[in-house]
Amino acid sequence: MRGRNLPFSSSMSAQIQRSNRSPLLLFTLSLLALSVLFILVFLSPSNPHPNPTSFHSPISSLKPETSFVVSLEHFLTHKVPKSPPLRDDTAPVAGDVEDASRKLDEALSEAEMERVIRDPYFPLGSPIRVYVYEMPWKFTYDLLWTFRNTYRETSNLTSNGSPVHRLIEQHSIDYWLWADLIAPESERLLKGVVRVYRQEEADLFYIPFFTTISFFLLEKQQCKALYREALKWVTDQPAWKRSEGRDHILPVHHPWSFKTVRKFMKNAIWLLPDMDSTGNWYKPGQVFLEKDLILPYVPNVELCDSKCLSYQQSKRSILLFFRGRLKRNAGGKIRAKLGGELSGADDVLIEEGTAGEGGKAAAQTGMRKSIFCLSPAGDTPSSARLFDAIVSGCIPVIVSDELELPFEGILDYRKIALFVSSSDALKSGWLLTYLRSFSAADIRRLQQNLAKLSRHFIYSSPAQPMGPEDLAWKMIGGKLVNIKLHTRRSQRVVKESRSVCSCDCRRSNFTNSPPSSL
Question: In 3D, which of 285, 297, 299, 206 has the Cα closest to residue 254?
């Protein structure tokens, strides 16, 4: 009986052994399949360096919009709230302002000390926290709508013939900064600055008043009245009274904007096109490099990108180009003198013109055909022409002895521009001899640097890392400790003390030269 049952028992034993091996085989095959899947997905040549942040920032793949008119149209159509907020930042009644200011100061001090203790890199390693005031719409959205509804009226000119709306575009830094600050965090790319919604969490306070639009598009008396209203609205704020405005950011990028009342806000951080030390535009002590920030004009021409620069390289047949108004005031009188000195010279093109649509096209064509672009002083030491040249790949030749430049704590302009004193530039034949002395290798190096650095001067939506909006906050971040120092000091120094120095007693911008050897 055992003999007849043996084959059956052996067969059963083999089946049992195979069944015991099946789970192990399935596990091995599953592990192999997972390994293959991992290799295909994560080590595929199409994605050799997977970036986890790319899954969280789809906005970074979108092409930024650099046209002010196009960006504003999209902003007003899609971003503006349907109605003003139920609560704005209207200041408390007079009797409660001092109490509100004291409570805010206590809350800010406590929050700041917590950050100092918690963050070993504070404030250098922390993003700047900005509180954006919710001002009444007559200071913000209504002015943007006014521009949007009238910008096609190109016949509207200033007294010197410049199109008003083109000037507003050139000075529209207030729009680009504000639009980025109030955008949802999911749509922003800048990480060095964040908007906070509680004043006690803020490092700085942003005043979103469009001073340039109001100056150019409102009637004179209407504009002055709005300026006075804005002044009262801001200076009644508890946060303003706490610091006397030292931690407030005020965009006044056109030298005429807010001119009638800005002396009452001289402690604030002004966003400027330059710092005129002659006193024609800013009174002594109102502006200086320690407190304020220079921002570039918005370029009036299109960016000549790397492809464009490569194409234009062989077509740059003009040695020196200038297009603009030759008759200017103050330091800009040098334009007429330079025009008389350079006109008619070989390989030089000097044209009289304005910034209208035809002028824009002519300037863009001329700059892209030229090696050097003349950038003399205008009514103020700076000129939008400098930034037009930079984004056109045309090497700027700067003749403006009092010029201050944007982001100079970060950028070295000697790598992209030539600086010539007014006295040298006016010597007969000197300037052209100097320009012709540059070798092809020198010129190519300057042009390559222009191609690398031009992105620092292109405003856009969304604002780009290392764009002008980003560099503005980096520069302000460098001032933050000093702002806090002067705010605290002003709160405790006896007002009658001789050590209290108002802005009026400050020296104009001055950089010490190295001592000469004895």
Answer: 297
**Which residues on adjacent β-strands are paired with residue 20?**
none
Rounded Cα distance between 305 and 303, Å, is 6
Give pLDDT tens digits for 295-314.
999 999 999 988 899 899 88
CATH 3.40.50.2000 region(s) of the chain?
306-458
Please give the order of strands across the beta sheet that includes 269-272.
Answer: 193-196, 128-132, 204-206, 248-251, 269-272, 293-294
Q: How many CB atoms lie within 10 A of CB 438?
A: 16
Question: How do residues 313-369 score in pLDDT, each as one tens digit?
Answer: 889 999 999 998 877 665 557 888 898 889 889 999 998 876 666 788 999 999 999
Mean pLDDT, range 93-111, rounded to an integer: 80
- The count of residues in the chain is 518
Secondary structure class of 219 (helix, strand, coil): coil
Q: Which residue has the tokens 């052209």?
A: 432
CA distances in angstroms from 418 to 181, 299, 322, 379, 434, listed in the order given: 35, 19, 15, 21, 10
- Classify domain 306-458 at the CATH class level: alpha beta
CA dist 429 → 3, 145, 405 (Å): 123, 51, 28
